[in-house]
Amino acid sequence: MRVAIVGGGAAGMMCAATIAEEYPDVDIFLLEKNASLGKKVIISGGGRCNVTTGIEDIAQVLEKYPRGNKFLQSAMHRFSPIMVYAWFEAHGVPLKCEDDLRVFPVSNNGKDIVAVFEDLFEEKNVQVLYKHNVQHITKQDTGFVLSLKDQEDLEVDNVVMALGGQAYRHTGSTGDGYDMIEQLGHTITPLAPSLNSFLTKESWPKTLSGLSFQKATIFVYGQKKKYTSTGPFLFTHMGVSGPAVFALSSRIAFLEYDKETPLDIRIDIFPDMAEEKLLEQLQQTRETSMQKTFKNTLPHLVAKSFAETVCQELNIPLDKKNADMSKKELSRVAAFVKGLPLQVIGRGAGDEFVTAGGVELSEVDPKTMESKICPGLFFAGEILDIDGYTGGFNLQASWATGNAAGLAIGK
Ligand SMILES: Cc1cc2nc3c(=O)[nH]c(=O)nc-3n(C[C@H](O)[C@H](O)[C@H](O)COP(=O)(O)OP(=O)(O)OC[C@H]3O[C@@H](n4cnc5c(N)ncnc54)[C@H](O)[C@@H]3O)c2cc1C
């Protein structure tokens, strides 16, 4: 049997590895348009590659996928985060689970993850066809013909589409798969960037660029449906970012917002403290240093740079003494930091981590990843209408679906 796997990213590599290890008689062609494998894997997690999650309970893991969680159930049980962890360690890459339950190679080097596959493909004679850009796929009575840019056609019995989404296009995933898959009879759901930072209308976040918070709660204000997200957060030169922002961006991936119709958000930088308690603390601080300026005592509660912004945004003169601060003004400060009002006018251009949307899941068998429309055609990874939050969940979905497709093809 001859199998073509299109796309040498996380999903394609895991699919090829699974077939090679489980079914040595299958001829595997892994077609990658780049001159190397796993470009996105290597840069993932800031180059450290957050391979999977340390969360062991599958139900909890599945909650981390705003799209595709039900579909993933079977594949995730068969190749769970624990099994992925064990798989990489068994293939010579020691992993570690950090306090926030993100799993990385001990070396903190994503290249080690890709090297596992390169070594395995050499050992198992997987034919890795670099610089092979698949342009079109034709279904025949038996099998498929792959048309390639500047190369001869390739005939195979089965095809796995693992071309990724269309985020970080310079890594090779440029959304090529969508048209080809539609031509084979499948539906592609609407696509949108996900796991992105927010650009804000206000320019004051820029002055705080780099200032980060361990925990903040962000909520979309004034929406009928309430979206919230809690986690680490930071100001950037264009707006706001960090895991809490990414998770929120994922939940609202299909909401439209721009300069004309901005999205109102509020950020609570004291999510674990009630507003009354915060006000109490502000009053106590005020009373202990009446002759100091308010701006200089506020850093008891917030960063110094932020204290100045708070005063400016609330029109509190920077030289105003605590003694002159009224209770009403302190209440305004407490309300402000419990709900920093910002208007989101866009997504950080091209900086999203994943694409939400993809191959319509009802058209794919969740156990085998095989098309219900075009037998012999399989899917794996981000090309499917599956995406997760940050924390190793997107790679985990790619490993799990790649493994499921590989096991099914060999059978
Ligand atoms: C900056 C960044 C950091 C990330 N960090 C993490 C992280 O730490 N943890 C995590 O879980 N997720 C992370 N993600 C998301 C994760 O990397 C992806 O979801 C995952 O790599 C998707 O795997 P894939 O195999 O489906 O697609 P990809 O990894 O995108 O692979 C698709 C491959 O197909 C090839 N291809 C495309 N078109 C063709 C064609 N026509 N012919 C031949 N080949 C083709 C591409 O060149 C590419 O190599 C990150 C994403 C980004 C952008």
From TrEMBL:
Keywords: FAD, Flavoprotein. Residues 193-347 form the RsdA/BaiN/AoA(So)-like insert domain. Residues 2-406 form the RsdA/BaiN/AoA(So)-like Rossmann fold-like domain. InterPro entries: BaiN-like, BaiN-like_dom_sf, FAD/NAD-bd_sf, RsdA/BaiN/AoA(So)-like_dom, RsdA/BaiN/AoA(So)_Rossmann. Its cofactor is FAD. Coiled coil: none annotated. It holds the Pfam family HI0933_like. This is Aminoacetone oxidase family FAD-binding enzyme. It comes from Candidatus Magasanikbacteria bacterium CG_4_9_14_0_2_um_filter_42_11.
